[in-house]
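Progress note, project year one: complex with nicotinamide-adenine-dinucleotide.
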Amino acid sequence: MKYLNCNMKVAVYSAHKFERPYLEKAFAGKHEAKYITSALSLETASLAEGCEAVSIFVSDNASAPVLQMLSKAGVQFLALRSAGFNHLDLAEVKKLNIKAARVPDYSPYAVAEHTVALMLALNRKLIRANSRVMDQNFSLDGLVGFDMQGKTVGIIGTGKIGSLVAKIMNGFGCHLLLYDKIENPELKDKYNARYTDLESVLRESDLITLHVPLSPETKYLIDKTSIAKMKKGVMLINTSRGALLNTKDTIGALKTGHIGYLGMDVYEEENGLFFEDHSEDILQDDLIARLMTFNNVLITSHQAFLTDTALRNIAETTLYNLDCFASAKENKNEL
Ligand code: NAD
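Model obtained:
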């Protein structure tokens, strides 16, 4: 591996309009960025030819064959503009001797706050209420919500984001049930929360929110079997990764009313769908089409991270990661 104590050429894939100003500001006068609006894929990997580094977003395909193409094109460094790295074949990265780094905590607040925004919007039926008012329909029938105070909230995954959700929900006066393979004793004392097993979280919670990463262990954590254990009418929120939920099973439970509310910022088939304007297309995905028909389902297209603070931190940490690569500096963000 050769290190370059200088500026690098960086192919920035999935360079969305919303993040361009932040990236341009961070990169100014430093590395030479080649902004590519398309996602990284087998078809677009050759665009990185001549670049030492590539920067990718959550929706990019960094599977083994794509990484092999990047390596052949001379790419030595991979700067992820995300915290999650389930879209990256880490074993292949190591095999190809590519160095990869992520942005581990650009703003857990952004994601935690969006999680709570989904809870409140679903509970108080804000989207329906607003469209009624826009139609000069000022009736309140069908808009009854519930007090958050006193409800039991189950938080699955109490890392950076889950623990902030715990803090906010404690502020609402909720009872907190926590599940994580590593307990955070601070949460118990500070927020009067109780760690328990997954089964008890599923059985006892009025609202359940998911904050574990996607891994073979957590894929379809929520499926027919786990849904059957939940309270009837439960509110389920997923701002973590789509495949934590089995979408077909979730739709089944929405149809019977077992799931009373669903808030999702991520979707297991979101690649190629989210982050893009498909308003002129014929929707081909029948599962999301079905989800869109429920008035107790609220979908946002992976925007929980989308705050000014988070975008600034993502751009600045990406630059830091590239600087560390270029100067062979040790970096805790490396994978
Ligand atoms: P984190 O690493 O701080 O916390 C994850 C927690 O999950 C840890 O406490 C870990 O012990 C626990 N965990 C992992 N595997 C587990 C298992 N099998 N069983 C029980 N607990 C397990 O991560 P974070 O910063 O809180 O982020 C959580 C997830 O949020 C990320 O992995 C990412 O997928 C998602 N995320 C989404 C967005 C968005 O815009 N929607 C943005 C950032 C992150």
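The chain has twelve helices and twelve strands.
The longest strand covers residues 259-264.
No further modelling is planned for this target in the current period.
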